[in-house]
Amino acid sequence: MMMFAAPELTAQVFAQLPERYRLAGRPSDWTIGKERSDLHSFLEGPAFDRDGNLFVADIPFGRIFRIGTDGAFELFVEYDGEPNGLAIHRDGTLYVADHRRGLLTIDSRTREVRTRLARVRREGFKGLNDLTFAANGDLYFTDQGQTGLHDPTGRVYRLTAADQLTCLVDNVPSPNGLALAPGDRALYLAVTRANQIWRIPLHADGSVFRVGLFLQLQGGLTGPDGLAVDAEGNLVVCHCGLGTVWVFSRIGEPLYRIRSAAGIDTTNAAFGGPDDRTLYVTESESGSILAVPLPVPGRTLFSHG
Fold first, then answer.
1. Rounded CA gap, 73 and 242, in Å?
2. Edge-to-edge strands of the sheet including 63-67?
3. 280-303 as b/e, with b when 16 or more CB fall inside 10 Å?
4. pLDDT (mean) for 180-207
5. Is the model's pLDDT at 305 over the cut of 90?
6. How many Cα atoms within 13 Å fall on the side-chain side of residue 166?
7. Check: CATH 3.50.50.60 for 8-304?
8. How far apart are CA 36 and CA 265, in angstroms?
9. Residue 121, CB half-sphere, CA atoms under 13 Å: how many?
10. How confident is the model at residue 3 (pLDDT cuts 50, 70, 90)?
């Protein structure tokens, strides 16, 4: 439960998915079991490249868009999958957490889609959701599938730069967004169906210990989704179904409540702009990219090289 009131800001619309890319009425397996089956799109996974272009995924229709600094959308790639989280390696390769196909890569020049990891120990994933790089090149990603309080078996993996795969936790009721604290000594994890944020301390040897509940949220039709961290270690939490993005201090005090100027499905966020002081948010109900300036710049990520 929220214990403190937070000053309010409003994220304004920076860009909207053009009408020509809205596919309402096209069937998609991804919508099975969802309240709405007529989605025009569902934008998630914002990630900036070195040139300031913003990449976002459209899960139900297997599309990834590139948005220029002027807000113009370009269909970057379309393929047979369900791309969710995106992260850009320092060599420019786009990594994709695909709900259907596993961990993928896309060459930024040729736009070729390749499978990086389709399964683990000869078993398929439940359904990958999000991913983030550490400074040493290790990749952390969540395997959410349809887990929840009824089935707390979601997993978080680490794939090292040396290609070693480790399951860090396997008892999560819907692991979603994730972000590393400065120094990469702890991993924040959005646990959507429990409306929680977990904090996962990381040993120097890569093992985890004393996993704890960092934040207990309330309300919303979905729960916490994407996460981001700024240069001071403050945590950004996108509360999907509440039309809100929270900013918490490194000790869990609410600093800001950022309200959406569009719909309520605030799904993911990334820092960008010339000085990394603007927070860009995917709002999936309206197919919008929101933007709000913040006083602290985003953490300098490995993916920005």
1. 26
2. 43-48, 54-58, 63-67, 73-78
3. bbbbbbbbbbbbbebeeebbebbb
4. 95
5. no
6. 13
7. no
8. 13
9. 3
10. low
